[in-house]
Amino acid sequence: MTAVEQGAKAPLSVGQRVLVRDQEWLVTKIEGYTIGYEGQEQNKEWSARQSRKAVTCVGISPLVRDYQATFLDDLDTIEPVDPTKTVFVADNSPHAQDSHLFLESMLRSTVPTDNAIHVAQGAAMDRLPYQLKPAEQALAQPRQRILIADAVGLGKTLEAGILMSELIRRHKGQRILVVTSKAMMAQFQREMWEHFTIPLTSLDSSRIQRIRADIPANANPFNYYDKVIVSVDTLKRDIQYGAALDDSYWDIIVIDEAQNVADRGNDRKRAQRAKLAQRLANRSDTLIMLSATPHDGRAKSFASLMNMLDPTTLPDPDNYTKEDIRQLYIRRFKKDVAADVSGNFPERRVTQEKCRTSRAEEDAFDCLVGLHLKMDARRRSNDVLFRTMLEKSLFSSPAACIKTIDERLKKLRHTDPGDATGDQLQLEELRARVQDITPDRFTRYQRLLDLLRSKDYDWDPTDTRDRVVIFSERIETAKFLETHLRKDLDLPRDAIVQMDGSMVDTEQQQVVQEFNDPKSPVRVLVASDVASEGLNLHKLSHRLIHFDTPWSLMVFQQRNGRIDRYGQTATPDIRFMLIDPVNDRIRGDVRILEVLADKERQARDNIGDPALLMGKFDIEEEVKVTAAAIESGQDAEQFDRSLDMTHLDVDVDDADDFSDWFSDEVADDAAPAESAFSADDSALGLMDDYEYVREGLQRFKEAAGIERVEELGDGVTGLAVQFTPDSLLHRWLRRHVPDPDVVRGDHAEWTTDKEYLQARSNPLIASLADRHWSRTQYLWALNPIVEWVGQKASSLLYGRAQAPIVAVRSRHLDGHDLIILVTGSIANNHAVPVIDEWIGLHYRDGRFVEALSLEETWKRTGFRGSLIPSTERRQYVNAGDIIDPQHLEQAAALLPDAVAQATGMLREARDGYRQRTARQVDEQLDRIDQWERKRKSVNGESAAKANQEVDRITGEYAKWVRDSYDTQNEPVIRIAAAFTGVDQ
After folding, report:
1. Nearest Cα to 808, choosing from 874, 893, 902, 869?
2. pLDDT mean by block of 10 residues, the chain; 984 residues
3. Fold for domain 120-333?
4. What is the CATH T-level fold of the domain 1-80, as seen in this structure?
5. pTM > 0.85
6. Top-level CATH class of 442-608+616-649?
7. CB-neighbour burial class of residue 76 (10 A; exposed 0-12, middle 13-18, buried 19+)
8. Theoretical Cys-Cys bridge with 150: which of 74, 154, 784, 913, CB 3.0 to 4.6 Å?
């Protein structure tokens, strides 16, 4: 007989022991899902009543021990242990060690039901108040969906990790999908592990192919791992992965560099990514977007991101205000968080390296200025002149210019020679002039050589922690620099590496790993702008050289942010290689580029966002602004004045003052010196993370297959474990780390010492193929080893329907007193607890006296030591005392009353919760109704299909709101322990 056939199902909660298929299991996760009938429009109330649960468990019985399975409660009978039938077992272990472990495991499974920061402040990172703000803002919302749009270098990845940690602590982060660029995959993966021990498995192109080879043909590769990171270029292959994505659901989805998935008109590449993001937006409850350049100046484009976060926010994407969306994004600049980052964000030094042009270069410039191309006369009004494209490529390098000429000549030779001959001859003449600019006549290159060799620059190629980043826009330039620098600086072949967008994901990760590995011989990275977004290059480098000057302020900002970012310990040294030409026209154009460099600095210091100056918020559009200034013959002063005025009155199509929304967030969004929303998860716990894991590993050595547990020593708080050859724990850990290399060999290490961990870890990125993962893991609440100890403590210390009873010597209790400690929770229809309480029920001579808080229970019993120094507390517990059999009988007899007392208290808490949340539910439903009416008004009555989609969105979100707040479920009560006093 199924659970459905039996009638009402017993309430379930995480941490319960249950019977399924004649085996005993420990509940680790509960998810709600709804079934319906094909073709039937579901009634909202019917759907809520018919909500089913998927219950994930870990096996306890010998036959299924450590096996993980998910059961559907409408197909399987999931029978919780009846709390009134709990059997108390006297804990005679020294100082109640078993009870401490058992209770601590239960305490750690308690779900926070408030909006406070509970664990993230303990992550392996500097505690900066401003970085907690995005998590606080998201947790205050019904759904955690937010765009984190802080400026380059402020730590958006860490801010995402903070929010993810809080959701994991709330049992809302079992399945996580991170989507980023292929160059960023390894860095993001490593940061999530080293700072938060979130184990993301990298699904690069090669890994997906290996998974497909290991699983059945119809299996979903995205269900193979619970926590994965994958590149956007891999996922956008719609035909190959679209169906698999639609069949996957995640607790959290993170989209990095979210500006690339905004809807920006007819850009086919962006449209493909936007379609992917829209697809993903419906596949998770939590959506976190990251972008340092979140908009392109058009309100409608930004609205596309907001609608991915919450489709019921903007009825008209062409007409909305900042107040409509402010809860969905957060944006700060360095100036806004200056107090928090003081001392960890040194002011940069910027120098222009001017190079007097050679005769060969002047000849090429003269030829370039004299071009009169028919193709330019026929160009569309908004297109950049091909002559300007040639100038831009020549400003990069002769090699880049020749490549541009050759590609156009190839095209012209396939057109009518009568129309193309004049252009061909001119381009061939220019090519000959450019060909004469040999490396010894290429003055910017010669100046670069002089700089790298100079005593003033003081670069030491032998110093492993003093590396140089050289940016160039063109791949041909980067390849030229790689080849010639290696020869002219007499560098070993592997001392210089080159990176560009033509490389596959694994190649890009390999290059960045080599640059950031202090043991590698790499000293110089020559990169195209594929490396300008997101990558951390500051741990081993404070030197950055712009070999060619960007024509976009956004590129300036992105490039400089690779070394000019939080955590940089040296003064960032940024150099611009600029030519000093004789040709008047070229000299004027170079001055425009100098203005750009200067404006980027001014904007960063004053308004935070350089993109405000041009008001385009798109790299290609900014390049067009610079090109237009050059083509119109503007002088530097005119260009300077135009940028000074642009940010004051940005001309955008959708909202006159839209860009101003992002220029001054500090007044509203600056975090206080200390977060007002933080809570200490360990305040009422029995053990800290280190003590808990140490005692757990010692207690379960035999079951885990541990040969030896040792302290790390040398003043470092940590543990080292050596495994037996067939260790179950070793196999379990290899499945719960980002790469098996973390627990390579026969031992593992954990430490709570953040400084020691930083010293032992490689500074930055390592590709998955290389053995660069630190063996020493950060020991804190979310490390997988803590989860393992909790599972063992919950399942091995006491049997089915058992709980400890402990004798305590306390001045508050004597032999007439008994305290039964219970934990109870009430979940919403998503199976997420909205009430999760601990109650101590004090009885004296068999009569109920009062209900105690957890803190008061610890005070009365001395079990935690709130009134007793922690170093002495355990001498008061189980100090050789034997439990009186009468106490066991009395405690068992009081269980029905204790359960009834706790149930009544939790029902009262539920009633209070309903009263508090009723207004929130009404507000949300009213908001959705208003959105529905306005959206249909915008669509018009004739837009039947669009209005059907509105009905779908409205119905889904209204149901989600009801299910999120509804608490029709009865309390789940568990008996945790009992304490009896001892006559003094």
Report:
1. 874
2. 48 81 83 49 39 80 78 88 91 87 93 92 89 94 92 90 96 92 87 94 77 72 86 72 80 91 69 83 92 78 90 88 89 82 79 93 95 85 86 95 94 70 89 96 96 94 91 93 94 90 78 84 90 80 94 87 84 93 93 87 71 75 88 85 56 46 48 48 83 95 92 89 93 90 89 81 40 84 95 89 89 91 87 89 96 93 59 49 79 96 94 91 92 89 84 90 82 92 77
3. Rossmann fold (3.40.50)
4. SH3 type barrels. (2.30.30)
5. no
6. alpha beta
7. middle
8. 154
